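user: can you give me the structure for this one chain? tokens are fine.
assistant: on it. calling the predictor now.
[tool input]
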Amino acid sequence: MQFTVGLKADGTVVATGENEYGQCNVEEWKDIISISCGPYHTIALKKNGKVLATGRNEYGECELSSWKNIVSISAGGGHSVGLKANGRVVATGNNYRDQCNVQTWKGIVSITAGIPHTVGLSKNGTIAYAGEEVILRNDVALQEYSGWTDIVSVSAKGTHIVAVKSDGSLVSGGDSWLGERDLRLWELP
């Protein structure tokens, strides 16, 4: 899918591009503070902590009306993830790779979702991970994330994860079949 969704300063949302599943049907959204797009769906966080969704709902990834007190959102490949104000995480949608198994997570300060996984950054600088245990293209074990410490920011997209450590260095894990993990050019002199 090729589409772009934008958040305007007045809290409304605009979209353009392919709309095969309705992922661009955002014209009526108001009071939005954050948006996130998966390949086939768009989710938005309202000022009041509720979440809206539009697009393909094959796995229930757009069934978010019961979510409350959400402070951050992330749309994955076929799932949606929300961070609650109390540091707990909710997820719904495709759980084929266990990417929605986040019920036990506590003390999470940020979330991010890729295609086969969900990642949470805990307040102690470690990573919480749910999803595929091995990326099949090159057998990269995802358990390597359990050793990451002093993390201040993390992003998961596709089948890889990149994180920033407190000293400004980068770590990455997961698949790198297109060079996603080659971060040598990002290092400071």
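assistant: here you go. The chain has one domain: 3-186. The chain has a mean pLDDT of 88.
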